[in-house]
Specification:
The complex is a heterodimer. By secondary structure, chain A is mainly α. Chain A has helices spanning about 5-25, 50-60. Classes of the chains: A mainly alpha, B mainly beta. At the A-B interface, helix 1 and helix 2 of A face strand 1, strand 2, strand 3, strand 4 and strand 5 of B.
């Protein structure tokens, strides 16, 4: 008999499914274009203001062992 | 005159696209400065331009330099003098909007005296369900060549293949959610060409900054990393507007790779809009990671030389806290021209729990940016 999934993995999968379900369910809730004015403001954007954050993101990212997921932060060896 | 400057910037930045350069719609300049307690200074200017052809095709280009002077832990350990180097990068991107689908591609080249990198990205964005849902897919290929200063024949390649999937969902007129996954496979040469790892003693080759004495390692061997790394990052980000002039945001990233590095990143922000054309943002970021499976603060000589070994602080257990504040403002110069001004100031503390010679690094950074929109 196969071993049951560990509680941790099960919890993570359930949480991921819940987030996906909420996201897609809300896709059925229509938000009219004229209701999206507030969402168009710069403070509601993900990854906006590249001119303000790209160099800092690069400098931070090269000092960590992780990469990806968020916005790309340039190339190079990251020796700085 | 302003349009001429922006057009010139665009023309200089986009020679690969040849003649069909439209009017420049945006031209900008930014300057980044960073100083840390690990004796590293970075100055990074960047110039960029964006052009739009018939409202549907967008072309952008940028040039940035990364000038850094360092006497960091690696350099102090090697007992060499502080060094100054420059990295140059150019970026080009082109995208076209087909009704509910936008397709685009981008390329960057990054070059310095001992590292060269070419990156290609293809990207597609679909607007779904009356534009309440956006699905973005991208694939990436990066080809790097690692060199060694003073040895022109030393060239070791590495390649990266990546794919990214991002779903952005409008939840309400005040709330928006984004979830995503990015996977990357990197193959090839991934260690430093300069670092040596000490076996035995205090684990330090060269000079030990802790004891202010020469390191007592009984044997020194070049750093050696696996030549394959599968990296996975899953992210979730959320923004909520409390009112017309305030909002908050939360973000989380879980990262895991085949080298054994696992990390958690939490980001939060609060934004205030004092005037319709101004935004003040306070950001906080926490990052923590576990070490790579082959990382040791000191390698035991009784166990022999392991197949992989490193003295890379980025692969040691560490955490960081960062706080930053930024201002973005827009001034309407005339009916067709807007000037965007941005300023950000931040500070970060990196803490290393098991890295000889370094326990904490404090850094401060300042970014200023000016963008002209036509």
């Amino acid at each position: 008999m196969p071993a049951p999934p560990t509680p941790t993995l099960t919890a993570v999968l359930r949480a991921a499914l819940l987030v996906l379900a909420c996201a897609f369910a809300s896709g059925c809730v229509s938000v009219m274009p004229w209701e999206r004015e507030r969402l168009a403001n710069p403070d509601m954007q993900f990854g906006g203001a590249e001119e303000l954050h790209s160099a800092e993101s690069h400098a931070t990212e090269v000092r960590e062992g992780s990469v990806g997921g968020f916005d790309a932060a340039g190339g190079g060896c990251g020796c700085n | 005159m302003r349009r001429s400057i922006a057009t010139l910037v665009l023309a200089l930045g986009l020679p690969l696209f040849g003649a069909p350069v439209a009017r420049a719609d945006e031209g900008g300049f930014s300057l980044f400065f960073r100083q840390d307690s690990d004796s590293t200074t970075v100055i990074a200017p960047r110039v960029s331009a964006v052009g739009v052809i018939e409202d549907r095709t967008r072309i952008s280009g940028s040039y940035s330099a990364d000038v850094w002077t360092a006497a960091s832990i690696d350099i102090r350990t090697a007992a060499t003098v502080p060094i100054t180097e420059q990295r140059d990068q150019v970026d080009f991107s082109l995208s076209h909007e087909f009704d509910d689908v936008t397709i685009g591609g981008s390329y960057y080249y990054s070059g310095e005296n001992d590292y060269w990198s070419h990156g290609f990205t293809l990207r597609s964005v679909q607007d779904l369900f009356g534009n309440t849902t956006t699905l973005e897919e991208s694939v990436r290929f990066v080809y790097d060549v690692v060199g060694r200063s003073g040895e022109p024949d030393f060239n070791e390649p590495s390649t990266t293949y990546g794919a990214k999937l991002i779903l952005t969902q409008i939840l309400s007129p005040e709330a928006i959610l984004q979830i995503g996954y990015e996977g990357m496979i990197k193959e090839g040469f991934m260690q430093s060409t300069y670092r040596f790892v000490g076996i035995g003693g205090d684990g330090v080759c060269g000079f030990n900054p802790d004891s202010q004495q020469p390191g007592t390692a009984t044997q020194c061997v070049p750093e050696y990393h696996p030549d394959f790394r599968l990296r996975n990052a899953a992210v979730a980000r959320f923004r909520y507007a409390f009112s017309d002039d305030s909002s908050a945001g939360l973000g989380y990233r879980f990262y895991i790779d085949t080298w054994g590095v696992t990390s958690h990143t939490v980001a939060a922000q609060i934004a205030w809009i004092p005037e319709p054309s101004q935004v003040l943002t306070l950001r906080y970021r926490f990052y923590t990671q576990e070490a790579a499976s082959f990382y040791r603060q000191t390698y035991d000589p009784m166990e022999g030389i392991p197949p992989f070994l490193t003295r890379d602080r980025e692969l040691s257990p560490m955490f960081s806290n960062r706080v930053a504040v930024s201002y973005q403002g827009i001034a309407q110069l005339d009916p067709d021209t807007r000037l965007k001004i941005a300023l950000a100031v931040g500070g970060t503390v990196f803490a290393y729990s098991r890295f000889t010679g370094l326990t904490e690094v404090f850094s401060i950074d300042v970014t200023t940016a000016v963008t002209l929109e036509l």
